[in-house]
Structures are given as C-alpha cells and as structure tokens.
Amino acid sequence: MDFSNLKQLSQHATDSTYEQARAFCELRGTHVMADFSGQETNLDQRWLIFNQPWSNVRKYNGIWLDGNNQVKKYNVHQTDNRHNCAYYSSSYNMLVSESCHQGMHPFICEFRPKNK
C-alpha cells in the first residue's frame, strides 16, 4: 500500500465481509481495497486499533500476499488453516487470519496504484 498520499485513503467503519469490502472499493474502478500490516507509522493507529479493519491480504498456496498484485509478503497470525483473509487485530498487534465469508470488519479503500 502506498501511504505517501494519505488523502487518497477512505476509511469505512461499516462492518462487511471481505468480499463486500473489496467489491465496494472496486465498484467504480478507481480504487482498490488497501493492504497493510498495521505497523506503518503513517497509518491512523487510533482508528486501526479501535476498528480492526480488513487488510487486503490473501493466502495463496500457504503464503500470505497482498491481494492487489500478489507480490508483497505479509506476516499473519493464522488462527485456522482454512482462513484465507486477514484483519488487523489490536489484541495481537498484527494481522490475524479470518474467514473471508463470515468475518465482519471495517475496511480501507485507496486509489488504484498506476502499476497494479
């Protein structure tokens, strides 16, 4: 995720499944769901801690990668081997695995990067 322009971020406090959040962000084709680890210093840490949003990371062949271009690897605390999505957990202070279909969390959209 590119945090160089924080004005591009749009935080949504409505709880959604991963699929609903991703579909909402990509509705107009100008945004994508944001991927982040939660350790970025220029993220709104207070919002992150209180809202515990989805991060656009997915598990591909047992490896956690960003869901936008599948290049950047992420460290995710896996609570169930069947989980393929992750959200930021304030309890763990890191990304934690979650069911893509059953988990409900807020989310962050960002402008679609030009190289993705």
Automatic annotation (TrEMBL):
SUPFAM superfamilies: C-type lectin-like. Residues 16-111 form the C-type lectin domain. Gene3D superfamilies: Mannose-Binding Protein A, subunit A (3.10.100.10). It holds the Pfam family Lectin_C. This is C-type lectin domain-containing protein. Keywords: Disulfide bond. It comes from the Eukaryota.
